[in-house]
TrEMBL record:
Gene Ontology cellular component terms for the protein in this record: cytoplasm
Cofactor field: pyridoxal 5'-phosphate
GO molecular function: O-phospho-L-serine:2-oxoglutarate aminotransferase activity; pyridoxal phosphate binding
Species per Swiss-Prot/TrEMBL record: Calocera viscosa (strain TUFC12733)
Enzyme superclass (EC): transferase
UniProtKB keywords: Amino-acid biosynthesis, Aminotransferase, Pyridoxal phosphate, Serine biosynthesis, Transferase
Protein name per Swiss-Prot or TrEMBL: phosphoserine transaminase
NCBIfam families attached to this UniProt entry: PRK05355.1
Catalytic reaction(s) noted: 4-(phosphooxy)-L-threonine + 2-oxoglutarate = (R)-3-hydroxy-2-oxo-4-phosphooxybutanoate + L-glutamate; O-phospho-L-serine + 2-oxoglutarate = 3-phosphooxypyruvate + L-glutamate
Gene3D superfamilies (alphabetical): Aspartate Aminotransferase, domain 1 (3.90.1150.10), Type I PLP-dependent aspartate aminotransferase-like (Major domain) (3.40.640.10)
InterPro entries: Aminotrans_V_dom (IPR000192), Pser_aminoTfrase (IPR022278), PyrdxlP-dep_Trfase (IPR015424), PyrdxlP-dep_Trfase_major (IPR015421), PyrdxlP-dep_Trfase_small (IPR015422)
Pfam family, one: Aminotran_5
Length: 406
């Protein structure tokens, strides 16, 4: 069966849906960029045309997220997973330059583990070595079954080390659907009160799964915010870094003092010194990302997109709560830590989950199966999913509850 775009709603978790109008324009540029007779992917990355895309894209991110002048916007490859490694290498190099006399045991990397992505990042830090990993909190210890990630634990359980080389957290855990609260007064907010400004400890946030879905609170307090492009920004292949200038360090000088050498493509200072063009960048992904951000700007930018995303997740959680109250659904995540972008739940009763996914698929509601690691159902409401499309899903779920709840 061959389907048209208009016949389906794509709830993929990333790569995910992108705006149709943007893809139509990108398709034109892929064939003939700005009347040059040459397609975007066939131009030189050193051309003025592409230099303009790099600058415009950085400018759009700066404007939309209100990036302060203390921070640089950089582009690289290797995905978010590449940064799991780059964070360790660059920030341990920084630490080495600041404190050359410390032993490896005294170079501590603090990881806040609230889901499968921050867990993976902490494991990579352990694998690379050069310092020791301190797990500040492991959210599994406070979940009912001690196996799943279901909430952001209370701040009192966070065990930060004294002066770590950095503190690392993941803002929204796509696989699990756990998110730090956007309300700073919530116990599920990031515990900024534990980070002493005067210690100048770099705080790193993996924003891959919520990037550009709303403004980033406390952006200026972070040393690094990074994200893979493949959710709200554009096609996979591009990784965006928003990095505070003091974290762009001479890693070769650090290596002379005993730090691990940093592969040149992972070296943030080198990326910056070359205006993100040290080597050939993911040109098509950057081009589409620029178009996506122009589209977002026309929609009213981050404040308008935040409101839209808030309304979308509210109507979805309302119907999921209704199903849970009737004993048909079990939501995986506690209320205060629920993700705006990724809603995860189980359909209870023999064969009901399979039935839900099968009927949804037939209705054109695609890609709703949960991540292979955790199963269940996962909805992803990235920016390109409209409110009307969310309402279609909500109506489907309401109907399913009517037919299947006892
Ligand atoms: N971190 C988070 C929060 C993610 O959602 C993902 C998946 N997109 C990753 C890291 C891994 O990203 P990548 O596949 O780009 O390495």
């Amino acid at each position: 069966m061959s389907l048209e775009r208009t016949q389906v709603i794509n709830f993929n978790s990333g790569p995910c849906a992108l705006p149709t109008s943007v893809l139509e324009e990108a398709a034109k540029g892929l064939l003939n960029y700005k009347g040059t007779g040459i397609g975007l992917a066939e131009l030189s990355h050193r051309s003025g045309y592409f230099g303009q895309i790099v600058n415009d894209l950085a400018g759009l991110i700066r404007t939309q997220l209100e990036v302060p002048p203390t921070h640089e916007v950089l582009f690289t490859q290797g995905g978010a997973t590449g940064q799991f490694s780059a964070v360790v290498l660059n920030l341990l190099a920084r630490h080495r330059l600041l404190y050359p006399e410390l032993s490896e045991e005294e170079r501590v990397m603090d990881y806040v583990v609230t889901g499968n992505w921050s867990k993976k990042a902490s494991e990579e830090a352990g694998r690379l070595g050069g310092g020791v990993v301190n797990v500040v909190t492991d959210a599994r210890t406070v979940s009912e079954d001690h196996k799943s990630f279901a909430s952001i634990p209370p701040h009192t359980s966070f065990q930060f080390s004294k002066k770590p080389a950095f503190v690392y957290y993941c803002e929204n855990e796509t696989i699990d659907g756990v998110q730090f609260s956007t309300d700073p007064a919530s116990p599920a907010a990031f515990p900024w009160e534990s980070i002493k400004e005067e210690d100048f400890v770099p705080v790193v946030g993996d924003y891959s799964s919520s990037f550009l879905s709303r403004p980033i609170p406390d952006l200026a307090r972070h040393a690094l915010i990074y994200a893979g492009a493949q959710k709200n920004l554009g096609p996979a292949g591009l990784t965006v870094l928003i990095v505070r200038k003091d974290c762009l360090v001479d890693t070769d000088a650090a290596a002379k003092l005993g730090a691990q050498p940093v592969p040149i493509t992972m070296d943030w200072k080198v990326i910056h010194a070359n205006n993100s063009l040290y080597n050939t960048p993911p040109m098509f992904s950057m081009y589409v990302s620029q178009l996506v951000l122009e589209h977002a700007q026309a929609q009213g930018g981050m404040p308008a997109i935040k409101l839209m995303n808030e309304r979308k997740k509210d109507i979805l959680y309302d119907v999921l709560d209704e199903g849970a109250a009737k004993g048909l659904f079990r939501l995986r995540v506690e209320k205060a830590s629920r993700s705006w972008m990724n809603q995860t739940f189980h359909v209870l009763g023999a064969g009901k989950e399979e039935l839900f996914l099968e009927q949804a698929d037939k209705a054109g509601l695609k890609a709703l199966a949960g991540h292979r690691q955790v199963g269940g159902v996962r909805v992803s409401l990235y920016n390109a999913i409209s409110e009307e499309q969310t309402e279609v899903l909500v109506s489907f779920i309401r109907e399913f509850i009517k037919e299947n709840a006892a």
